[in-house]
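Researcher: I need the complex structure. Ligand is guanosine-5'-diphosphate. Inputs:
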Amino acid sequence: LNFQQATFLTSAPDIRALPADEGIEVAFAGRSNAGKSSALNTLTRQKSLARTSKTPGRTQLINVFQMNDQQRLIDLPGYGFAKVPLAVKQKWQKALSEYLIKRQSLQGLIVLMDIRHPLKDLDQDLIHWAVESQLPVRILLTKADKLSPGPRKKALLQVSEAALAFMGDVQVQVFSSLSKQGLPELEQALRLWFNP
Ligand code: GDP
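Model: Output:
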């Protein structure tokens, strides 16, 4: 499994427009600005596979990247924009929970959170839905380079402890697209999901 081989396959306006539910896929989710695009670019060693810094409130698409016809990375729209109307938020939340429950090819969920602002309400909702769907979750505490080693370790311990409360398979690691800290761990975890 070579993440460098990842290429853009398609953008889907909603879950129904995703490619056929075959093979294996892993989804990436997080609040806007959590560092999701940067993490995908770091993982695939590509400068601009995933677009960084999008316009808030714009119609958001699900981007699909594939390593090959049986292995996909799903870039879910960032959430948490204050400006998005409530009805749009609720519609998206329903679609997202359905995706987590119904998608057979979905093997795991990566949830990205800024290490300085972890476990906001929507992050927690998302993790709850995943756990309810028996889906393993890996939390990436992103932008780890923004903290010095002491506070970084403290944040990891705090979130690891909080993760126990979800009562599911919820792993936690630190990550930095800038320093590449946590990249080997992320790759190892993804390899296990893609090769069960
Ligand atoms: P997205 O909205 O979740 O896709 O977030 P982006 O990947 O676009 O990143 C949001 C902002 O955080 C950008 O200004 C990035 O340069 C910055 N950023 C992302 N990852 C890191 C990181 O590991 N370290 C630092 N210092 N900044 C980062």
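Model: Summary of the prediction. DSSP finds five helices and seven strands in the chain.
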